[in-house]
Design a protein that fits this description.
The protein has 337 residues and is α/β, with parallel strands linked by helices. It has 11 helices and 7 strands. It is globular and about 50 Å long.
């Protein structure tokens, strides 16, 4: 029987194996992110959107998803999320380099348009915020087909809340009390625009009341807090109790993308203050403090991850490009060979 004195992971029903695997996913996402950043600077990856700093928010959400059963609509910053759901560093590298075997789009989409039929990851639209309409539509389809014990999660940044499509998606979900969970990864900036100029309230989650759903604010750098909120929301949705809006307060540790210069709108001191709250370091300390991982094991894990990312980089660069005669595949009703 669980006690309030038990460690947090035990109270949440998370095994040591899940925690170690989760940390490995976070480290893999960061190492992949680091590599993509370098590749973009070398002209070997055209466009990169960083997930650095968001790993706890995304892993906590992934733990709450029934992988391959629930549907997920990520946004362009959700690389750690899709890796936690089952995409590999090689999958990500093939996607970033536009290779034929890119599992998300066959080398056709800009980086960040993650997709997988097997994992039920639905590719988001390039128009910011519009994929929340897709999330509501998928949830409405469950109602139409009579599917039960299933939910959809749609994720976005706080800047998306200024878009009309965002309001439409939440309105429909609230009216019909659909099985959908909306997750705002609030990293304080909509590209270069700070939250105070983008959102008229301190907490995005306070908007939930206007759409007929509960709103929850959590520390997005605390993987356990995110998981607890996401699990409760997904359980509610699957049980037919309607939608939830979750806001994860976090921070991106790199510029918005490799096309952005964040020195123009935020200080080095601000970034360093948030680096001290790095979610990966925080999670590592928890595992070490609770005797679930030793420093030597951690270093070995980091070496293994670096080797995996090295191998994925080499394999992706050696992979073939899409064939010219496949240019019209998947367009206007055409079928891929």
């Amino acid at each position: 029987m669980e006690s309030k004195d038990d460690p947090l992971h035990i109270r949440l029903g998370l095994s040591p194996e899940q925690l170690v695997a989760g940390l490995r996913t976070m480290i893999t996402a960061r190492e992949t992110d680091d590599r993509l950043w370098l590749l973009s600077r070398q002209g070997r990856a055209h466009f990169v959107v960083t997930s650095a700093g968001h790993e706890a928010s995304q892993l906590g959400c992934a733990w709450a998803i029934h992988i391959g059963h629930d549907y997920v609509i990520p946004y362009y910053r959700d690389m750690a999320l899709v890796m936690a759901l089952g995409q590999s560093p090689l999958d990500i590298m093939l996607h970033a380099m536009g290779r034929r075997d890119d599992p998300s789009s066959g080398g056709r989409q800009m980086f960040g348009h993650f997709s997988s039929r097997r994992l039920r990851i639905v590719s988001g639209s390039s128009s910011v915020g519009s994929h929340l309409v897709h999330a509501a539509g998928i949830a409405l389809a469950f109602r139409a087909t009579g599917e039960r014990d299933i939910a959809v999660m749609g994720l976005f940044g706080e800047g998306a809340t200024a878009e009309g499509a965002w309001h439409e998606g939440l309105t429909i979900a609230g009216i019909h009390q659909l099985p959908v969970v909306f997750v705002c990864e609030n990293n304080q900036y909509a590209i270069s625009v700070p939250q105070r100029h983008e959102v008229p309230v301190e907490d995005v989650a306070t908007k939930a009341t206007g759409y007929g759903m509960p709103g929850v604010v959590v520390d997005g750098n605390d993987v356990f807090a995110v998981y607890a909120a996401a699990r409760q929301a997904m359980d509610r949705a699957r049980a037919g109790e309607g939608p939830t809006l979750i806001e994860c307060k976090t921070y991106r540790l790199r510029p918005h993308s490799n096309a952005d210069d964040d020195r123009k709108y935020r200080s080095a001191e601000e970034i360093e203050a948030w680096r001290a709250r790095d979610p990966i370091l925080r999670f590592e300390r928890y595992l070490i403090d609770h005797g679930l991982l030793g420093p030597e094991q951690l270093e070995a894990m980091r070496r293994e991850v670096r080797a995996e990312v090295d191998a994925a980089t080499d394999a992706a660069e050696a992979a073939p490009w899409p064939l010219p005669d496949s240019l019209t595949d998947h367009l206007y009703g055409s079928v891929s060979r």
